[in-house]
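Ligand: zinc ion. Inputs:
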Amino acid sequence: MEHQILAARWVFPIEGPPLERAVVEIEDSRIAAVYQGTHPQAVDLGNTALIPGLVNAHTHLEFSQLEAPLGPTRPFTEWIRSIMQSRFNCSIPASQRIQQGIEESLTSGTTCLGEIATSSESLQLLSADDRKPSAVVFRECLGFTPDRIQDQQQIAAEYLQLGTDLELGDAVGLGLSPHAPYSVNPDLYLNLVQQARDQGVPTAVHLAETEDELEFLSQKSGPFVDLLSELGLWDPQILRDGMRLYDYLVPLAELTSALAVHGNYFGDAEMEFLKQAPQISVVYCPRTHHYFGHRPHPWYRLISQGINVALGTDSRASNPDLSLWKELQFLRDTFPEVSTGLILECGTLAGARALELSDELGSLAVGKRADLALIQLPEYSAPDSGSDLLLDSRAYVSRVMLNGVWIN
Ligand SMILES: [Zn+2]
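Predicted complex:
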């Protein structure tokens, strides 16, 4: 049995305050002890902080080859057109793009992913060996017209079966992702949520991302109608009257876990509903939100009301990289009034809760998987607190441990 004893200037257990000059002991692949103090056999990691591996609760690894985010961003449907074009023109095999995203995620400190996949390749790559992040891989389903319902449900069913056939270890889970209200027929949406419920798997949906989406649902007009018309898919009968944003949230509460991705424009009715639906987490993608120039995100208000808010990068189509660490630093700079501890919890334990993995990861608690990120702290002479130092713009992820093994 391998026993490792690591000493760092700061340790952030998440469930509990940061510990100065502290030790993390690891037995094989699990955390065995976390305490303030020293140990004669400890490996001294110097001016660093140990934190749990980061949880990126929302990404699409298939766009990881993009060197810069796509544009234009307004209206949002122009960006959708760009993404359709980019997918059509791309000649790099999906497996290569996804692998690139996995590696980028790991080196930037992410040890767990909520991945949206349009094929089974993410699932196969992420379950290939144990030097990969843990993940829940959500199969994306799309189809606005009624003739797509059956084949999309079939795709979802085959995907869930594939998970059984592959005998996934406990590090990779399956989920379904009806893409968004403007791209998924309401009946298909409800059927997919039902399918997820029957199979006991989580669901991720892009919801309340733009004001155009709200207009589309409430008035059946705006840029999404134009886009669907251009694609020959628009029929006003498809959108049921009375199927508003709120009505997309309600069925998610029947699942053991659901991710409402973005939620940029959740209003009072949705927030009231979320307060009594703890199964639903909101995933805020800070830099993507900023890239599109949305109104301020209600993330802090949601948290204040007891709603679980996880963080995501979304894809490289709307973000310059896949670093969740940089999302945390962005939040630090943008919201100086919010504590480092809360920001760090959003990027670790809240993500683990959203993906139903908080028994296994997301904090430095005894018995949890030894998935860690080592943060190199800036050289200050003053004895600053760990919370002041951790998300400083000069602090960076220097090493990553997966299952008790340093991978870099
Ligand atoms: Zn997304």
